[in-house]
Amino acid sequence: MTEPLIECENLGKKFCRDLKKSLWYGVKDSCSDLFGKPPHPQLREGEFWANQGIDFSLNRGECLGLLGRNGAGKTTLLKMLCGLVKPDSGQIRLKGSVGALIALNAGFQPVLTGRENVFVYGGILGLSQKAIKDRLDEIVAFAELEEFIDTPVRNYSSGMNVRLGFACASLLIKPDILILDEVLAVGDVSFRAKCYERITDLLQQCAVIFVSHNSTQVARTCSKCLHLHEGRPLSLGPTNQVLQRYLASSFERHDSQEIGQQIIKLNKLLTNGNTHLNQRCIIDYGTDVKFTLELTTTNMPDEVITIISLTNDAGDIVSQLRSPPQSLASLHASESNELIITCETGKLPLAPGTYAITVSLLDGGTQNRILTWVRNAGGLEIRGDTMSNSPTLLLSSWDMR
Ligand SMILES: Nc1ncnc2c1ncn2[C@@H]1O[C@H](COP(=O)(O)OP(=O)(O)OP(=O)(O)O)[C@@H](O)[C@H]1O
User: Which parts of the sequence belong to the ABC transporter domain (predicted)?
Assistant: First the structure.
């Protein structure tokens, strides 16, 4: 169980942004390669490191999640592991058979039928016609493509391509290493669930490495994560720690956005007394939470309804606090235009992670006139030891006798 199947040492890959230069460098590198010379170690004009200094190892039974923004170098790393791209520095050691699904079309020939493509795919893996035939029914059933297996792949939808690609990568051979890019995201919900079940089964006997922008899936499936930033490893470690830091860093990129008539303006948002308009505030899981909104109004309605929404990194609202219509009569009487609204939630049962706070105020009279709506008014990082694959982690006490 502790046998390393993937070992990467100081792995690096350069690309060139300029096509002409890239072709010229390619010719020079091929010539150097022919004479047994090592690749050019430094960056030449127009080149950049798509991956640099990547070190990790993965044992049988482990699943590594690759995290990072678009263009961080995740696919390049997977392509190097699959042998599709040659590293410019470092070393890769792989043990056993590799099943991979990197491109959306899974490398299928568009004019061939699904069935013919399975035979081509199996042939590339070195399987005999009989061995492929023996597994064909299982592959077609898993991909749920019984009616389409004799249709040319160019007529497949992207989801159908991925179904067949995943079935080939995971069923044609029993892979020791399974490499998956973000392609599973295009499958429908039930197929994705089936794929993750299959990955969990395979994890008994193989090492899995996959890219996903879905933090719930990563938390559920991966034992450790590697966070890449501009091609370099930013952190590597247990999923719980790396994912929390990754989600926190991705929140910092969002600026607040105000929509609505701005009849009421949000000047300050505080969580447990800490200011954060467009800044992250850190609390421990299970602590009492009090939100304070400091606002100014220009043209006061009689009543307001306040809504505070918490959204996860996928943009889904995971929790919402909604006030009843609150009268502004006392404010009218004092002729002040400053308003402070507080909301106490008690212990917030949200799972550890990072959430964006959206604040909206509606006219309590019409209930649908938006007085203000501030997306990403602040971020809330909930710290805790356990990541959960559910957005809420209900507070509970347990007993055993
Ligand atoms: N063949 C290539 N030639 C030149 N540049 C490339 C090539 N392939 C990738 N790149 C560049 O390398 C960088 C890393 O790309 P990569 O596809 O690995 O990112 P990624 O993390 O997988 O992104 P995403 O999440 O968007 O899929 C990007 O700047 C990309 O433009």
Answer: 29-255
Encode pLDDT of 290-305 as tens digits.
999 999 887 778 888 9
pTM over 0.90: no
Cα dihedral 173, 111, 140, 77 sign: positive
ipTM summary value:
0.97
Q: Is 102 helix (H, G, I), strand (E, B) or coil?
A: coil
Structure tokens at 359: 């604040």
Verify whether ligand 1 is closer than 6 Å to residue 227 (CB atom). no
Ligand 1 centre distance from Cα of residue 168 (Å): 25
- CB contact burial 114-152 (16+ within 10 A = b; e otherwise): bbbbbbebbeebebeeeebeebbeebbebbbbeebbeeb
Q: How far apart are CA 13 and CA 72, in angstroms?
A: 12
Which residues of the chain register pLDDT less than 50?
Answer: none
CATH superfamily, domain 4-249, is P-loop containing nucleotide triphosphate hydrolases (3.40.50.300)
Residue 165 Cβ contacting ligand 1 at under 6 Å? no
- What's the pLDDT tens digit per position in 133-144? 999 999 999 999
What fold is seen in the domain 257-383?
Answer: Coagulation Factor XIII; Chain A, domain 1 (2.70.50)
